[in-house]
Write a structure and sequence with these properties.
This protein is mainly alpha-helical. The chain is built from five helices and three strands; from the N terminus they run ααβααββα. A three-stranded antiparallel beta sheet has the order 1-3-2. The longest helix has 17 residues.
Length: 118
């Protein structure tokens, strides 16, 4: 089997030149970051309540996990208040990267679609 080494070299150079995709935010990720940045650190069900119906219980934790994997948020466990009882809560906070990505997305949205900005 004949392999053209110049073609292989060209493919390798082409792939190597492309930078990774820039950070992206889904509408849910953007909303979560907005709530965490503008208000304070929250646990998952607090985010659902603060979203006024825009986040659902069934998807918020999947989205939070994905955002933590991307480095947009960080979390730690905190004991539940004595009056509430129950299991410890996982508290979510935005990272510096999450704040920068959210600011960049908000600025781009305001510039590209002025009616989109809140």
């Amino acid at each position: 089997m004949y392999v053209d080494s110049s073609l292989t070299r060209c493919k390798i150079q082409f792939v190597a030149r492309h930078a990774p995709h820039p950070p992206r935010l889904s509408p849910k990720e953007s909303l979560i970051l907005e709530l965490l940045i503008e208000e304070r650190a929250k646990y998952g069900l607090e985010l659902v309540g603060a979203s006024r119906g825009r986040l659902k219980r069934g998807t918020v934790y999947v989205t939070l996990g994905r955002m933590e994997d991307k480095g947009y948020i960080t979390s730690h466990t905190e004991a539940a208040p004595p009056e509430a009882g129950g299991l410890p809560r996982r508290i979510y906070e935005p990272t510096a990267l999450g704040r920068r990505v959210h600011a960049a997305w908000a600025a781009a949205a305001a510039h590209l679609v002025p009616g989109f900005a809140r």
